[in-house]
Give the backbone structure.
Amino acid sequence: MTLLDAPTLSPSAIALPSVARIVLIGFMGAGKSTVGNLLARQLNWGFIDTDAWVEERHACTIASMFSQHGERVFRQRESAQLARALGRDKVVIAVGGGAPEVLTNRLLLEQTPATTVIFLDAPFPTLFDRCVLQEGAAVRPVLLDAAAAEQRFQQRLPIYRRCAVHSVATEALAPAATAQQIVQMLG
Ligand code: S3P
C-alpha cells in the first residue's frame, strides 16, 4: 500500500468526544487547507479556511490587501475571521501561516473550549518548493523574499510547537494519510 492509497475511515465510524473544533496551524505549504478539507469530510464536519473568509469578507485578495493596506491591516482582519470561525462547532479550521504569531490569536485558540490545535510540520525547503511550484510566490506576499520567508519560518517554529497539542510530520505523508493520522491521534 502506498501513502496515496491509505484507506479513509467512513464518517459514521468516527466520533471525537470533547473536541468541537480542530485548528490546523503551520507554515505556508504545510497542506492545512487540503488536509483540513479531507479531515472535515472524514468527520462529517464543516471546513473553514480563514484566508478564504478574509478574502470573501473584504472582497479582496490577500496579495492586494498586503499591497494596498499593509500586513497590519491583514492581520486585524485575520483575527476577526478567526474569532468568527471559533464560534462554530464541529469544524476543522485552517488558519494562515502567520496567525499563531499574533498574541490575540494565540489567546483565542487557548481560551476557546473544546478546541484542539494541530501543527503540520515540514522542513522549510519542502514548504517553499511546494508553494512556489504550486502557485508562484505572488499569491503569498510573505514568500516574495525567500531569505525573509525562511527567517519567519525559524521565528514561527517554536510558536507553532507551543500552540499545538499534537504535531504531524507531513514531509513524507500524502494529505489523506495526514488526515488519517490526525483522526487516529484524537480518537
Ligand atoms: C501568510 C500565510 C498565508 C496567508 C498570508 C500570510 C503568512 O496563508 O495568510 O499570505 O504570514 O504565513 P497560508 O499559510 O494558508 O498560505
